[in-house]
Amino acid sequence: MFRVAATDILLDGSVAARQFVVTDFSGNLVFNGALPYGDTRGWGPLPASFAVVARDPASTAAVLQTAPTGYILRLATDAAPQVVEIGRFDCSAGERFVASYSCAGNSGSNAQIGIQYVWFDADGAVVANTGRYTTVTTVAWQSVTTPAATAPAGAAKCVLRAVRIGGGSGFGFLTNMEVIKQRSGQTLVTPNSLTTELVNTDSFSAAGLAVFGGELRSDNYNAATGTGWQLTKAGGLVVPNASITNAKIGNEIQSNNFVAGSSGWRIRKDGLAEFDSVIIRRNMRVATGTFSIDWTRPGVASTGDWDRSGEVDTGHPAPLWSELKKVYIATLGLTNDAVATADYPEITDQVWWDWNADTIINRTTWFGGATIRFRWAFRGDQFLKRIQGTVRWSLYEVT
User: Fold this and answer.
1) Does the domain formed by 285-397 have CATH 2.60.40?
2) Assigned architecture for domain 20-184
3) Residue 247 contacts by C-beta under 8 Å, 6 or more apart in sequence?
């Protein structure tokens, strides 16, 4: 049997073991184990020989000068064992727990201190107790991680105690008390695989990863709230917020509310797409320009409606000696500076005119290039006597 505890483990070869134990550090079962508030909140009654004392860099006691936390538990000598409850939890037979703590004594002390597990059955009767103690003899602080304690047969609950065994001399000091539930299992490590019940890590890198049962997910995954992510062995992937530079779709991609001809959207790999509604924000306008007009109706109002027409060279390049490969549309209309005059001022609000961009033309010159042109037409009401202003046109490439 061997044990390794480290922040980083670098191996050039391999590790083989009958059992590999992964400790789950997700929750400390000790209440208030580092005494951050300077009191014993969450604990049971404190014996008279126990007290919470503050770290004091100006103290003459070296153990108080160098305490690893702002407050520590001092355990004075007593003829009988003294204990204080520091936590309790449900458990099952065979579950394993590891206790750790920081401890020290004072000059000349000989105190046995630590953490005790008291196991109870479902009816509240004591089944057994397990002690994990350290004898402190100097003022030097030490970090202790104890051997795992296993819940015995019949255990359903556990009470944790900070303990000083009766007798000895001097003071003992405790802080950073922690009890963690282990997760263990038969583990196989090969050059290409790791099989275990739990891997809990901030960073993981693998050339290949296979999930034979269950799922991969982030520690904050919650389907109801839409947080975290999940990957199942069936191929299901839930990622509430994904950023993907490039993606290749083997069949189709669709919204979760897609119903053909009704709602949502779908894009198939053959290029067929269906959207319930589309807003395209890219600039499809490829050319724009203006021209001025100052037109007067020929004849009198009784002559009837009147018109004008023309052609615009947009300057947008077109293919030489071939058909247009893309679809274009053109639009035009007066800008806000237009002035219109009617025969009868009292009917000004009834006078009308309209514009029409009619035909897209791919015009090629024999010795020059090819550009896209369009024909336009204007039609005015018979009572529109004169119209002046600027006409703005635009050419759009829609496919």
Assistant:
1) yes
2) Sandwich (2.60)
3) none
